[in-house]
Design brief:
Number of domains: 2
Shape: globular
Strand content: 25-35%
Helix content: 25-40%
Strand order of the largest sheet: 1-6-7-5-4-3-2
Structural class: alpha+beta
Length: 334
Amino acid sequence: MRALLSSLLLAAVGTITAQPYSGTIFIDPDIITDSDPGTLVSVTYTGQGMVTVYDRRPAAFINMNAYLFDVVWMDGLTCVAMVNPEFGSVAAAEAQAQIYAAAAGQIPTCLRTDVHALWIHDGVYSFGGGNNSILIHVGRGQEYINDGILPETLVHEASHTSLDATHAASAGWLAAQAADPNFISTYAAANPTTEDVAESYLCWLAVRHRASRISTTDYNTILATIPNRLAYFDEISCDLFPITSGVGIAEQADDAVSLSVYPNPANAWIEARSAAVLPGNTRFELIDATGRIVLRQAIHSGDRIATASLGAGLYHWRCTGDDALLGSGVVIIE
């Protein structure tokens, strides 16, 4: 089994010129906030079962009869929250699963693609990413919640799980790493092959899509320190839902297009209606009750969207264009 990627054990490297940050999760708690949109649809208890997970307390993989919860996110991704039986009851375990499934639902779709499990234990120990999972110790998690950086931490860990295998040793990444003036943090410098992608990706997210939320000093520091790494991330395919704009996809500009769906309830078709002309890159999506995207298509003003093939029920819809949310809501298909 691939070794779990150690994370957030910050250390300085005396032989390398001082990097601007110790670790990038601490840069700014406003990159993702509690008021930002999330994608969590449901957390459903399915019983207890034996699973093999990593636990930092013995620093080993252990077998445990975990409380198991199916997690469904709005973008169609799912995972299993595996909660240590030490929490003592289904209710206590579910409370933890809800906290971390909701926070994970605020980070980009592309970072959750390979997250198949949340391993949740008690204790004040570092999080981790890898093995198609995110390792969580809720004592440390509470510290991150108190500091407002839980989603930022999950961005880091999910970058390990979903990005490292493809990018950490790629020729393009290594070239960008070599061309940049420095590592963004002492933690990345100390662990250039295992932590640099995760440390850098959160910074890319901040300067490219949350620039209005970080200080000018941090913005300029990141740009000056890792310009080639930022350019590398610019070129990779990564679905950032629900984060796609400088202030967050749920925050519409004053002149944003306003959309509604008609008719509602619907049968054979629906139409996304707006008083303004839709942007040329408008995308419409329907999500069923399990969080699965059942319809996705580009649309223009006046287009009808065929729904006759869909089963009857309640669907979430969202419409994006020009890196902004144009509208979202629910529609009933009869």
